Amino acid sequence: MTLTRRKFLNTTAVAGAAGIGLSAMGKLVSRALAGPDPVTLKTARIEAKLMDVGRTRDVLTYGEAGMPPVLRMKKGEPFAARLINGIDDPTTIHWHGIRVPNKMDGVPFLVQPYVYTGDHFDYQFTPPDAGTFWYHPHCNTLEQMGHGLTGVIVVENPNDPQFDAEKVINLRDWRLGDDGQFIDQFRPRDAARAGTYGTVRTANWLDQPQFDAPAGGLVRLRAAITDVTRVYAFRVEGAEAAVIALDGNPVPQRFAPDALQLGPGQRLDLAIRMPDDEGAIVSLRDVRGTKPKILATLRAVGKSLKRDVRDLAPLEANPVAEVDAASAQHISLALSATAENVPADGICGSLGYSFWAINKVPWPGDTPDPTAPLADLKIGRSYVIDMENLTPQSHPIHLHGMSFKVLSSSTRPVQPLVSDTYLIQPDEKVQLGFVADNPGDWLLHCHVIEHQKSGMTSYIRVT
Ligand code: C2O
Ligand code: CU
User: Fold this and answer.
1) Scanning 80, 239, 257, 388, which has its CA 20 to 30 A from the CA of 410?
2) Which residues are near ligand 1 (CB < 6 Å)?
């Protein structure tokens, strides 16, 4: 917007009538033009304490020390961030789950140039939805995310019900050797299976942190799985707990997390009713597989607030357009393994292998010249993705730019959840419906990064 003299005069006239002085108005005008003050997110290579043995070198973060900051935004209010690249590798930021304009989506080559060492890029958007989201690079991601560049985003809604406390938890692993230093980020034979697991598991970069929370109070616990590989199965012990939102969106019906499976990229919002007794411990656990783990604990402090989880008002639904399943066009999407081969190298961190395919095509991942889109969608129309998993692994499939609704599954009853990431199980067929209401090129990929980088990436085009 350019401010003409005429507009400026009109504004000052109104301001004058409202009794605001000229100089104050000048400040307001320049503020409105400049937008909100940008948050600075500068990538840095640091040392961090992740294990008992010494400090780990070559850890990546935004900021100067410790975990990337939890970013707080407000639903419907503009947000701005300046990414400054302080590391010796090109980077970008993707705002996972936030429905941003295409130019702000952070995918190199598809929507924006690389941000090279010493350069910067200004992101600005208005989050339309409240909830728990996260941010990460979309460049050489196995390396950059694997070394630390994953942060949580909270988009606040002033109409949210009142909790007595809120805890935000960033769940992720690290591939470290006994000496506390990074080891190879992946093993090809694991990339062709479930992915290569980390060796050290953390919550907020700590081993099993403990937080204090008011006894008898209601806690909102927001957890984001920002790991590149691990699927979790959540359970809460020591307190009554209800899932109130998944992937940023309220669940139609609350339920207790009983080995609830969520994959990389997904988020869990829990309402936890703390025990009445001071000192009582509540634990958030991962009960999947052969090595269950206590991820974090809450300790009740003070005199009981005697709250009741049933008094919590429902969360407001996000303004996501309702899919018209009857008129929707269907897009078939088959996830399969592929014959192993070595593709032409992508320049944004291809693994140098292909193991996976979408509709029989192993997609090269981030390349300077991506192949044609998987589908061309018409703006404003309804679509249903019929997705089928023909592999023996589960895959957290993530769509950029738009939220879908889970319509049906061939293997289990599903709630009509609104989401951006669906963890599809082996032999499952699922229908995901959405309105193509955000123009641009939008990635669709598995969030097990080794799968993404060895064939399981594609994109759709909305015009
Ligand atoms: Cu969480 Cu394509 O990303
Ligand atoms: Cu996968």
Assistant:
1) 257
2) 94, 96, 136, 138, 265, 398, 400, 443, 445, 447
